[in-house]
Amino acid sequence: MTPFEFRQLIRSQTHTGPTAGFCPGYAQANLVVLPRDLAYDFLLFAQRNPKSCPLLEVTDTGSRFLKDIAKGADIATDLPKYRVYEHGVMTGEYTDVSHLWRDDLVSFLIGCSFSFEGELLETGVPVRHIEQNCNVPMYLTNIPCAPAGVFKGNMVVSMRPMPYDQIVKSVLVTGAMPKVHGAPVHIGNPSVIGIKDVNKPDFGDAVTIKDGEVPVFWPCGVTPQAALMASKPAFAITHAPGHMLVTDVKNIDLKY
Amino acid sequence: MTPFEFRQLIRSQTHTGPTAGFCPGYAQANLVVLPRDLAYDFLLFAQRNPKSCPLLEVTDTGSRFLKDIAKGADIATDLPKYRVYEHGVMTGEYTDVSHLWRDDLVSFLIGCSFSFEGELLETGVPVRHIEQNCNVPMYLTNIPCAPAGVFKGNMVVSMRPMPYDQIVKSVLVTGAMPKVHGAPVHIGNPSVIGIKDVNKPDFGDAVTIKDGEVPVFWPCGVTPQAALMASKPAFAITHAPGHMLVTDVKNIDLKY
Question: Which helix (H) or strand (E) element contains residue B120?
Fold first, then answer.
């Protein structure tokens, strides 16, 4: 099934579940939709924090349609599930947000670690939370983001444990993909970046760190979401966790 | 002389000339200053056209001071020469623009090919316009930029001729520096990208292409300047050609 075909199943609400595992090899993207009066600050936040907020595409104001990463995709119907927030509080989950669309909305499509995990697996680096069939562990750090207008906060990171002899390879593989978070932000000692207990993630699930394994931390797309929600925006739409946009861009093309 | 020391000489108007050749190894940046009402479109244009418009820093609205690439640098005094435009027409050249500063101005610092030329020379790739002590040849192409709001236009490219056996190295060296335009956009046949006569550049100076040499084309920072001027903005400040901001960032650090 091509990403286009899969998006048609989503548009017709034939598929309303998570997107993980569908259209392997193609990038999936996080979604943030904001009114134009917040869009400048958010765009600036992304420019200043590209590792945690790598933008794959930003729509024209009011347009529901993508032109680049998924030509013709309709933002309001082509993701399987959305969350709507008012003043920072979730007010609903929907499989279609056409009825909520407004002429002042701007959509931000943000690169996702699914893409580099595919490359890590290809080269033989283990991805523990995939092995354990759970969500990736994520942590709030003491690394400040560069603030922009109303948006500020510390970086959220995701963690993948691995044996020492896989670290260099994982840095090189992910470092070549800056559009999907790029290289790790820390390797080895969680306390250095303000993480008290690596077995108690702030978001997602804990995973096993085997004897002789090292925790490796990457900037995480939850960072901009956390900064956004902390600002209690009057109106915002995001994808529901795990229910992403499946794009027409191959992961391997995110290197160029 | 450190970049900080050099900027003090510029601030005191002891140095008012071009910046090429000063503080070798440190990145220099192009400057575009726009009112806030145009800044969103320009930021979006840069997001959509990162190869020709790689942003190194964007200031807070109204602030004259940089926080990242040249901590404490004053945008209004620390470049040796500025040009002021009103409705797309140049209305003045100044060595200080403090008296023109407004609370609604946003400054964009844009990466510059000086940085990758330093790396090319380091690895033994010839840079002809430096050898010939003239400006780099630049051409308007048939490659459309992704438009954003009021900004649109085709890509402008710069050209460096080289022997066949230097092409691969030059792609790898510059491809590793996406913050300063990155890899070439075309190698070999100028007509493919809409250039009629490689000996008649649209901007800058013609350079010698020796027998057996191939013209190699890179996205150029004149692209956003051309798109900006075509929109005839009510007010804009730019650096005067060759009179750039000298940053505290080493060229080699632009790889990471």
Answer: helix B114-122
